[in-house]
Amino acid sequence: MRSGEARDVTITLVTGANRGIGLEVCRQLAERGHEVLLGARDPDAAARAAKEAGATPVRLDVTSAADVERVAAEIGRLDVLVNNAAITYDTWQRPSTADLDVVRDAAETNLYGPWRLTQALLPALRRSAHGRIVNVSSEAASLAGMGAGTPAYTASKVALNALTRMFAAELRADGILVNVVCPGWVATDMGGPGGRPVADGAASVVWAATLPDGGPTGGFFRDGHPLPW
Length: 229
Fold this sequence. Notes:
Elements: E1 11-14, H1 20-31, E2 35-40, H2 43-53, E3 56-59, H3 65-74, E4 80-83, H4 100-126, E5 132-136, H5 151-171, E6 177-181, H6 198-209, E7 220-222, E8 225-226
Parallel strand pairs: 1-2, 1-4, 2-3, 4-5, 5-6, 6-7
Antiparallel strand pairs: 7-8
Helix pairs in contact: 1-2, 1-6, 3-4, 4-5
Organism: Actinomadura montaniterrae
GO molecular function: oxidoreductase activity
Family: Belongs to the short-chain dehydrogenases/reductases (SDR) family.
């Protein structure tokens, strides 16, 4: 992995990026000239996906403190962090009968993973003149229209939304923009068939990853438009 010391190149790390939205985000950012670090738990999957996207593979399980510490030690400067890794779209559960072990497992990846990684990479992000953090969430986590479905996934994403607001408030003085994005219902392994094209969902994330200085921070967006919390 490169240290990212060259100041004329935007260094971007995308987690959970060996397929679906994450892979397409890597592809789109690489096309824009970013040096993309493609993170995935399986090193072979990371290598295959990185070759496809024009990125550098990074073995990274966001639930592993050892992985996070290793990656943070190897990155000298980071301009953009996209916390995309997520699990457990638990359509079979309802809150009254939910398996709380499933809820805890979802939170490890969907909340504590981004939290742990962001903490570890803040020194590298602070070395950037244009730091950006994008947390990939879902409109399912909007309190305004919330229903009873997918309780593990939804609760973890609600917490991720709150974490976004807190980091945005803390890092505003550093010029680091922190936003949360809903890609929409996208035709991926998690979303299932029938959703919109992966490229469209990824473009929503790329929009937040490439905001200009002075852009919004602490917001919840889809396709560049605000969503209700």
